[in-house]
Amino acid sequence: DGGITQSPKYLFRKEGQNVTLSCEQNLNHDAMYWYRQDPGQGLRLIYYSQIVNDFQKGDIAEGYSVSREKKESFPLTVTSAQKNPTAFYLCASSPPGGRGRNEQFFGPGTRLTVL
Amino acid sequence: KQEVTQIPAALSVPEGENLVLNCSFTDSAIYNLQWFRQDPGKGLTSLLLIQSSQREQTSGRLNASLDKSSGRSTLYIAASQPGDSATYLCAVSQGADKLIFGTGTRLQVFP
Q1: Strands A110-114 and A10-13, how do they pair?
Q2: Which residues of chain A have a pLDDT value below 70?
């Protein structure tokens, strides 16, 4: 089955710890994205990547880091520098070509809670 | 700066009603507009994508229209069912790389 998988579904972190959220897609999509969703707010873009070994900051990149070593994978690390990391994190991907004109497809999300 | 607004924030209707959800955006220079559905605790499911050159798209009981000049889109749901209960999000693509989302309309359809 083609799709986007995220793991884990739930993640608990102690203050001061770094955690890494996984995002994998087998859709052969070039572009991948990470969004954060907070109650009562729309999704906000953290980082995005158009091609392997390249990525750009989104609107709220502070306290986060990413890598894009493989086309299929775009992991997100939430560092201890992120002041308020408790949120629902969503990964998305988009087909190649037609930059900005293509549909984005989303994974099931990871809910991160800081204890 | 692009801002996307969805009205109403919440809607509760009896089964069978036809519904209109509204989305407005402040900057008409968009590439496309997407409507999504989100069930509680789940990811987003893409419903319809309207390119900036298009006026509407249809999928089953759903019809989305786009009026770029006035900065508005509507999602029309015909003959609503309890299974349509979810949060509906609209998002605009501006520039090559990101979607800008509204805060959503939470819909409840009761039997």
Answers
A1: parallel
A2: 1-2, 97-101
